[in-house]
Amino acid sequence: MNQFVSPVLDALSNIIFGKEQQIKLAVCSLLCKGHLLIEDLPGMGKTTLSHGLADSLGLSYQRVQFTSDLLPADITGSAIFNSTEHNFTFHPGPIFSQVLLADEINRASPKTQSALLEAMEERQVTIDGTSHMLPNPFFVIATQNPLHQSGTHPLPESQLDRFFMRISIGYPDEAAERKLIMGFSSQQSEDVKSTLTDEELLELQHAVTHVKLPPPVIDYIISLVQFTRNSGLFHDPLSPRASIALGSATKAWALMSGRNYATPEDVQAIFPSVAGHRLNLSVKEQDKVISDILDQVLVPV
Amino acid sequence: MNTKLLLITFIYLIMTMMLFTELGTPFAILLCVLNIWHVAQWKYIRFPPSNLILNIVAVIGMTVCGLSIGFSNSVSLFVSLMVLACQLKVIQAKSDKQNKQIMVLNFFTIPCLFLFSQNLFTTLVVVTALIINLGVLAAISHKQLLLPATKTAVKNIFFIIPVSMLLVVFLPKIPSFWQLPGAQVAKTGLSENVDPFNISELSQSDDLAFRAIIEEPTSYSPPFYWRALIHDKFDGTSWHMAREQNIPVHVANRDISSVYKVIAEPSNLPWLFSLGNAFSDSDEVSTNQFGTLFSSKIRSRNFEYNAHTATAPTKEFLTRWEYQRYTQLPKKLNPKSAELARQWDNDAGSTDDFIVLMRAYFIAQNFEYTLTPEVIESTNSIDEFMFEKKSGFCGHYASSVAMMMRSVGIPSRLVSGYLGGEYNEANNYFSIYQYDAHAWVEFFIPNAGWQRLDPTAWISPERLIGSLSQHTTLAEQFKSNIGISLVALSGVPGMEWLRLTLEEYDYKWTRWVLNFDKNKQQSFLQDLLGNNAQVLSGVIMVLTLVVVFLVVFLFMQRQVYIKRPLSVELYEKLKSVSPYKNNNLTPLQFISKVKEQFPEHTHELDEFYSHFSAARYQGKTFANRQRKSTMKLIKSIKIKTKRKL
């Protein structure tokens, strides 16, 4: 386990019990400078996890609760007339922070969603012809409810693709639930201390790019991607952007496991989270379909 | 600009060196300059010159080529134009496609060396050059490094050797439909006109003239005078060839008991070599009235023939016309020599006495044998030689003696050919080189016929034994004449051995490969297959072809075999013997499953995985010593798996 990463994971597992895998995936996404989508039913700890992530990485964050009447300017900020100076002054919105927590992103109208997603891709906001750079690092951690819930606007596929990973937390096991009821979580959620400085985070992100991706692992990624394209089972096969994401997530996973080289196990670990939403699978069907793919695609030696 | 192409330039350089005498100095120098140009271009400029410059160079090259070689020698001209074109193309080539065209063309250009010589050395050079060419071609077309590409090429060549050998042995030898005019090869040591007085230095070459195999040495004893040409007309300075030399005559009295074989090197003259009066039962070889042999066509390849001694009926007398012919002399030339001969004739009672007196004179006057005589320009050249210079080589002596005999009415003629030869004991053959060329006299005695007289032997009796290269007193002169060659280095220890060994291999090459002609093939098949040789060889041919095509077909059908790394091979092996051979598992998952199944092997499995992951995922090499322990592990897991099932 990487010496910088393990404190972060430890801190997070103190607020989300029994979900080490999901926590690791979330951190992995951030190490790859990728935006994270957390999808689950209400009350499963999505918001807790996203706050914890921002806290533990020591990043400044702002939270926006997406509602159906939220406007793009509510996120990006707008120019307001200054009556003393007789000019328009730009007032940055909540997006100008290192982490933007977009709660229930699929409750907002497509117009607002797309304003956010543009900022995610470009890492800058253009208002009245002026471009404003977003801070670095910049992450969006969005949560959304499953699509069958009322009052949701599904994210278009093109915009889903911009999320590096989609994770879902799932129900806790008995022991974890017992702990929750006993009230451990509420006390400790305020205690999450930043365990990583900005520089350390940047260094980790940099270290990810230096992890070795050996030929068998590349072959594996390619066979997986090709399978989604050639098998005819998928309406929306994986894009080259997905292949790149699989590669860097694999590297980050290897780094988090304390190695400077990737193995096929790393690919298997990150594959569901990176590929699931891109294949347009719902959280429910994702597990089965992905494990089918992993069963059918031979692991290159 | 491709570095590999320098090798091709190097091949052209070697070709230029080997064809130096054919190409003429100016053109050879031009080719060398082009070689240097290519190297310089590769080193400093790194892009090809403009087409205009190249075209100008091409025109200059063609002009030099035409001037240097001349248009009469069409084969040399074609070959040199070919080499020029290839060299220019190499300089010009920009793309891999053009380079490949050159390589393919080289498969034609390089074997052109065979037009000029087919001995073992040339063969080795050609084969080496072709291998290099093939390697470069493979390297360029497969984008490989030169060495592995060449290795593959050599492997493939070895693969086809047995096939081509079978084809050589069994494929019927069909006469060619069309032939190049023979290249002007092997400057012979003989010439049709013998003019010794005009030569300051006997041009000597260590090229082979012919080889002879005398199977019954008892029938023939040294010195071996190999007769080739008869000269019957003397014009005061040179002796001209008899014109009837290429008119075949019937030889009645044949003695076929003692055959000897001669393997003649390619030559631009039809005259062949034989001992004494000879006839031959080989195809296209005839005997003329002088008892020498000639071929009905000029040979551009080695040529083997059988010869027998024919005991010609003793001629009792010469016809009047013949007598005139053999005593013909230009009038009023060489009066002093003629006077001297007349004195001896007066003192002597017979021709034999005359010869004795003549011999005594040569010995008393301290005549010398030399390979570097002074040029005699006066019209009375024999007088000057007999009374002033008193040193010369075989031509001088033979010419003078024949002239003096004619002046007193003894019919005589000059014979040129070769004397001696180098004997190879292990294989029982003689090698006769161009420097063994010799001239002597034949004179006629009524009722006894033509007799041989070698005046050179009076001066230098040593010359009669073996080859000129074995002549001790002349060693210095000989070596300086011959220039840089193995013969000249024979004083250096080991060199003589090296030369003789090479010579022996070349002999075998000539005898068994080059001269494997239609007749030899037939007799070989007869020996091998008995009476049904024709049928059986046909069957073998068909079978061979079927096998060859099958092999080629299977070869093309086969899947491209990529050698897997050792680590992968061992992993696959381990997996195939384990209970999980059909599971789609990552290596780590697989190893941990096997560990669960066979906890006693945990340590070995962990060790294997760490090596495996180092090799597959970390770019390190798989330690070869790991192989043994892994094989042991595989074995034990195999046994245990079987037991469990």
From TrEMBL, chain A:
Keyword Isomerase attributed: no
ChlI/MoxR AAA lid domain: residues covered: 238-293
Residue intervals passing through the bilayer: none
Stored InterPro entries: ATPase_AAA-3, CbbQ/NirQ/NorQ/GpvN, ChlI/MoxR_AAA_lid, P-loop_NTPase
Domain spans labelled ATPase AAA-3: 35-165
Domain of life: Bacteria
Record keywords, A-Z: ATP-binding, Nucleotide-binding
Pfam family, one: AAA_3
A GO molecular-function descriptor: ATP hydrolysis activity
Similarity remark: Belongs to the MoxR family.
PANTHER family: METHANOL DEHYDROGENASE REGULATOR (PTHR42759:SF5), MOXR FAMILY PROTEIN (PTHR42759)
The protein, known as: MoxR-like ATPase
Organism whose genome encodes this protein: Pseudoalteromonas citrea
Upper classification of the organism: Bacteria, Pseudomonadati, Pseudomonadota, Gammaproteobacteria, Alteromonadales
UniProtKB/TrEMBL annotation, chain B:
UniProt entry keywords in alphabetical sequence: Membrane, Transmembrane, Transmembrane helix
Boundaries of every Transglutaminase-like domain copy: 386-457
Record organism: Pseudoalteromonas citrea DSM 8771
Keyword Ribonucleoprotein carried by entry: no
Protein name (Swiss-Prot/TrEMBL): Transglutaminase family protein
SUPFAM superfamilies documented for this protein: Cysteine proteinases
Pfam families named among the record's database cross-references: TgpA_N, Transglut_core
Gene3D superfamilies referenced in this protein's UniProt entry, alphabetically: 3.10.620.30
Lineage, uppermost ranks: Bacteria, Pseudomonadati, Pseudomonadota, Gammaproteobacteria, Alteromonadales
PANTHER family listed in its UniProt record: PROTEIN-GLUTAMINE GAMMA-GLUTAMYLTRANSFERASE
Spans through the membrane: 6-39, 51-69, 124-141, 153-171, 535-556
